[in-house]
Specification:
The complex is a heterotrimer of chains A (284), B (276) and C (242).
Chain A: H1 3-6, H2 18-48, H3 55-62, H4 65-105, H5 112-127, H6 130-143, H7 153-179, H8 182-190, H9 195-210, H10 212-225, H11 237-248, H12 252-283
Helix pairs in contact in A: 4-5, 4-7, 4-11, 4-12, 5-7, 6-7, 7-9, 7-10, 8-9, 10-12, 11-12
Chain B: H1 2-24, E1 39-43, H2 63-74, E2 82-86, H3 89-93, E3 102-103, H4 111-114, E4 118-125, E5 128-133, H5 134-138, H6 145-149, E6 153-156, H7 161-169, E7 176-178, H8 181-189, E8 195-199, H9 200-210, E9 214-220, E10 230-235, H10 242-254, H11 257-270
Helix pairs in contact in B: 1-10, 2-10, 2-11
Chain C: E1 4-13, E2 16-26, E3 31-35, H1 42-49, E4 57-62, E5 65-66, H2 74-80, E6 81-84, H3 96-107, H4 112-125, H5 141-153, E7 159-163, H6 171-186, E8 190-194, H7 198-204, E9 207-212, E10 215-220, H8 222-227, H9 232-241
Parallel strand pairs in C: 3-8, 3-9, 6-7, 7-8
Antiparallel strand pairs in C: 1-2, 1-4, 4-5, 9-10
Helix pairs in contact in C: 3-4, 3-5, 5-6
The structure holds adenosine-5'-diphosphate (ADP) and magnesium ion (MG).
Adenosine-5'-diphosphate binds next to strand 2 and helix 1 of chain C.
Chain lengths: 284, 276, 242
């Protein structure tokens, strides 16, 4: 607070600079504009959509309050399975992805086979649709004659998800590793640190942090792809919604399932964006 | 709702018609068949047991062969006036002219198909059946609810098998559900599930053809399914013969002939015990 | 006996021959300065000395052992010859003290507790006692460069290489870093500097080498090289920078 401010407009609350007051005004004005336009758009949607000729039918089969109320608790319960599958897959994906990324980063010629393996791995598993991998591994490997419980679709479905997503995570991590400037490795080497220590203490901690937002986006996609495990048996939310649909000849359960997914993925997406912005700001 | 109303209405109509036709004898079909004084019937190529025994419908052996001759006789055709042709499933449901008067090979009556072809009244309501593998049977699984409860179950997610499992079997472990029956079979082969619930004809076919060690362990009578699969004779869209066929079927149902044929061929051929 | 002796050291990057048969002798406790235009090969020469860059040809004797032999394990050499870079190259995700302790912990297998007294001593000696827990981006350039020096010293090297360590600093921060070098010089550290600080080189160096296009064109005691250069190219270089 400077002396000159005391001579300023009487409205100035104590403790604010002229710049702060000005910015607060601008903020209030843009807030008003945004709120008004949002309300107008919403009003238009609420008024106009019901005027469409097919609205009654759509409402009955997609936005049926009765059906929603009847099926929502069951959907929520089924969603717990999605969450569980996600929870045990994500760490495995990260570990395998890290391993593959390190294979691809292997520099010495003696380790070329590892590198080739890393390249083939990422090419293959990024090139095949997840659902195919789930079918092939989820039915194929247990079909070889594994005893229970080792033939469980939960295990092999998870393996399929882990194998596929690890390929994506590996690529993200590799880009992170490559983004760490050569001078960091040189500094570590000049101190006499070994290759593995350089990777472990200098390169990886920076690389992993740098690609957190990209990985968050992958894990948001994983949260949705967990539903694909339903193709080999587990009754998670997507399958449960399908069962309700067949029973009630009504699509509202799918809307319910979508809402549950959104409730999880929107905050996660926002958070990833927030991290990404924060990093962009830190780097500039 | 609407469908069952039309069906009730049409069967009432058929009953009225058949009362009139009974006196008229075989004249209903006169001039309506592909070939004068001959009834051309199609079945699958090959035709499977227990629907047709030994792929020889002329022998009248097998459920659908027997039904075909019963319908023919009731419409006024001698056995010798019946000729058989073969068709694939796809050929039968393709729109356009047909080379048969009617076709029977376990065609389920569905609204979508009704748009393209005509179906007769149903000649069979399929029961729900328990399909499993021989090792599971050897392991002690029986056709009793108590024994079934302890199995690991699977089903096609959008069939009435799902509510039936929950309401009737009430298994100890949550069932696994799949997008189609091929996946159900695959899961059974992978030993991820012990047993699955399907309609009986599908179960029979699956156990006999798709699996090496498939066993149909037992069946739940159709009265227990809310929306049973119903088979009908398939005809060209707008075939004038339909009213004669429907009349004959209505009579056969009425006087118990169909039930007798079913008892003879389906219960015997499959030996599928009823689960109570 | 020379502490470090280079004989016809040659280094190429592809077709670009950056060091063309360099001979250089550095004695124990000596301070040698490399001067020369940008791109003349000073950094490359320094990086060859501690095997950060593999040498293509020639001999480098460290205590009479040829370390330039292909296949020679560079890690022990780098532990004995420290280097500090123009751009500090601190590890940004670690505090100053973690930066300094990483290598001794991993390479010498010593615990943080065991290291702390001597590391604190180093920080204190270079006026950084209150900056130990700071992250690099919370430090000024001069402070970062001093931490980088401390980091190299913590490995107890026998020789220190400095690659234009003041070039990236604001002018008012150069002095504090040069003071560090002065302290080291007084403590008898064997040092090789690539530098543009001619005044400093003149004041403290035992020997100055003028590098031109990958060869040492002229070398000698600073008074002689600065006031009475023999080569025309040396003279014109000095005329430009002084
Ligand atoms: N890693 C490298 N790869 C290819 N060329 C390089 C590399 N490092 C340096 N050079 C080249 O070597 C020459 C000498 O560079 P440098 O040693 O950095 O000179 P100085 O430090 O005297 O400015 C330059 O032509 C530069 O382009
Ligand atoms: Mg340089």
């Amino acid at each position: 607070m400077t002396e000159t401010n005391l001579d300023g407009p009487a409205a100035a609350p104590p403790g604010l600079t002229r710049r702060q007051i000005y910015e607060a005004q601008i903020r209030r004005r843009s807030l008003r504009v945004a709120a008004t336009s949002t309300v107008l758009v919403l009003l238009a949607l609420i008024v106009l959509i019901p005027l469409a000729p097919g609205w009654e039918g759509v409402k009955k089969s997609f936005f049926n309050a009765d059906v929603f109320a009847r099926t929502f608790p069951g959907l929520l319960e089924a969603f717990l399975l999605d969450v569980a599958i996600f929870a045990w897959s994500a760490p495995l994906i990260f570990l395998l992805g890290l391993l593959i990324a390190l294979c691809r980063d292997a520099r010495s010629p003696a380790l070329y086979p590892l590198r080739l393996f890393g390249i083939l791995y990422t090419d293959i598993f990024r090139g095949v649709p997840v659902i195919l991998v789930i079918y092939l591994i989820g039915f194929g490997i247990p079909g070889l004659g594994l005893p229970r419980p080792w033939n469980s679709p939960y295990i092999w479905g998870t393996v399929a998800l882990v194998l596929t997503y690890a390929a994506y995570v590996a690529e993200v991590l590799r880009s992170g590793i490559e983004s760490i400037h050569q001078s960091q490795r040189a500094a570590a080497a000049s101190l006499g640190l070994s290759h593995s220590d350089t990777m472990r203490f200098v390169v990886l901690p920076q690389a992993i942090r740098r690609v957190v937002p990209a990985n968050m986006n992958l894990f948001i996609a994983l949260q949705k792809d967990v539903a694909l495990l339903s193709f080999i048996g587990p009754v998670e939310i997507f399958r449960q919604a399908g069962v309700y649909k067949s029973l009630l000849a009504n699509f509202t359960p799918y809307v319910g399932a979508a809402l549950i997914f959104l409730a999880v993925t929107i905050p996660a997406t926002r958070y990833a964006d927030y991290l990404m912005n924060k990093q962009a700001r830190a780097r500039s | 709702m609407k469908r069952s109303f039309t069906r009730t209405a049409s069967s009432a109509l058929v009953l009225l018609l058949s009362a009139g036709l009974a006196a008229a004898g075989g004249h209903c079909a006169a001039g309506k068949t592909l070939t004068e004084d001959t009834l051309t019937i199609a079945t699958g190529n090959p035709a499977y047991y227990p629907w047709v025994m030994d792929d020889a419908p002329e022998s009248k052996a097998g459920f659908e062969a027997a039904v075909a001759y019963a319908v023919a006789n009731r419409m006024g055709f001698e056995d010798a006036q019946v000729t058989w042709v073969r068709s694939s499933f796809d050929q039968a449901i393709q729109p356009g002219a047909k080379d048969f008067d009617f076709n029977l090979q376990q065609f389920s009556i569905t609204e979508e198909r009704e748009e393209i072809v005509d179906f007769s009244l149903p000649y069979y309501s399929a029961a729900m059946a328990v399909i499993t593998r021989q090792p599971v049977v050897d392991g002690g699984a029986e056709a009793t609810l108590a024994s079934l409860k302890g199995l690991l179950w699977g089903a096609h997610a959008s069939t009435t098998a799902v509510p039936m499992l929950a309401d009737v079997v009430q298994p100890d472990a949550d069932p696994l559900l799949y997008g189609d029956n091929a996946d159900v079979v695959e899961a059974m082969k992978a030993n991820q599930i012990d047993a699955a619930l399907m309609d009986l004809p599908t179960a029979l076919f699956t156990a006999a053809v798709l699996m090496d060690d498939g066993v149909v362990l037992g069946q739940f009578p159709p009265e227990r399914s809310q929306n049973p699969d119903q088979f009908g004779l398939l005809m060209e869209e707008g075939n004038p013969l339909k009213e004669c066929v429907d009349a004959a079927l209505a009579e056969l149902t009425e006087d118990g002939t169909l039930a007798a044929i079913e008892a003879e061929w389906l219960a015997e051929a499959t030996g599928v015990p009823v689960i109570e | 006996m020379a502490k470090l002796e280079l004989q016809s050291v040659t280094k190429c990057f592809g077709d670009n021959v950056v060091c063309r048969g360099i001979d250089l002798r550095i004695d124990e406790g000596e301070m040698v300065c490399l001067i020369g235009a940008s791109g003349s090969g000073k950094s490359t020469l320094l990086r060859c000395m501690n095997l950060l860059e593999p040498v293509d040809d020639g001999v480098i004797l460290l205590d009479d052992i040829d370390i330039a032999e292909p296949g020679f394990d560079p890690q022990p050499v780098r532990q004995r010859i420290g280097i500090v870079f123009q751009s500090f190259n601190l590890f940004p995700h670690m505090t100053a003290v973690e930066n300094v302790m990483l290598a001794p912990r991993r390479v010498h297998n010593r615990s943080r507790e065991a290291l702390l007294p001597e590391v604190t001593e180093l920080f204190t000696r270079f006026g950084l006692a209150d900056r130990m827990q700071h992250y690099p981006d919370q430090l000024s350039g001069g402070q970062q460069q001093r931490v980088a020096i401390v980091r190299a010293l913590a490995m107890k090297p026998e020789i220190m290489l400095f690659d234009e360590i003041t070039s990236a600093l604001d002018p008012e921060l150069v002095g504090e870093v040069l003071d560090v070098l002065r302290t080291l010089r007084e403590a008898g550290m064997t040092m090789v500097l690539a530098t543009h600080e001619m005044g400093f080189a003149r004041e403290l160096a035992d020997k100055v080498c003028f590098l031109d296009n990958g060869v040492i064109l002229e070398e000698g005691p600073p008074e002689q090289l600065f006031s009475n250069p023999k080569q025309e190219r040396t003279r014109s270089f000095l005329a430009r920078v002084l």
